Amino acid sequence: MFIFVYYLTGGWDNVVSNVETNATISNDFLLMFNMPLAEFLMPFMTIGAAMLVRQDTWQRVWAARNLSTTLKANWIAVILMFVTGLMIIVIGVMARAGLGIETDRPDLIYYDVIFGALPFWLSALMFITLVAIIMSCADSFFIAGSTIMVSDIIKPVFKITDDKKLLYVSRLMVIAMAIFSLCLALLFQDL
């Protein structure tokens, strides 16, 4: 998607010239540090804090052969997440300054780019990919949370040793977490 948006905008030079000639976009739009430091650091802090408790981070730690492998795997993951996050930000900037896509909700610019600038076949592919990513992440978090709840709380407290019972309780916990998450999503839609 980054390549398509870059191509559609005519390149970074075209984006810069659009900022300079467009009266509705301020000249400091492309300056990275034209915002308060706290606002600039917020994405890094939230993503960084989330990385500490993610299941895949700890899977790399426990599955690694040694400390060196653990460090390499986690640094590669951090670099890939940083590059991905940077590309998402640049797509948003290019959509606003290069494609002229205006939106009241900047957090939804990705959808505006998908459905407003890309050819239909790529829009369909990107939307399907986005839904698949969301589903993959959601079920991984439900399974990880269920495993933690059952292994660390339910099993020791209720002294369950039967594997079939543990599996059944794990499945119930996944359902409970899904219902709880759905309720939170419906109650707090501005998150």
From TrEMBL:
Highest taxon listed in the record's lineage: Bacteria
InterPro entries per UniProt: Na/Glc_symporter_sf, Na/solute_symporter, Sodium:Solute_Symporter
Keywords: Membrane, Transmembrane, Transmembrane helix, Transport
Any single Pfam family the record assigns to this protein: SSF
Coiled-coil ranges (or none): none
Membrane topology: Multi-pass membrane protein
Transmembrane portions of the chain: 29-53, 74-99, 119-145, 166-188
Subcellular localization: Membrane
Family indicated by similarity: Belongs to the sodium:solute symporter (SSF) (TC 2.A.21) family.
Name used for this protein in its record: Na+/proline symporter
Annotated organism of origin: Geomicrobium sediminis
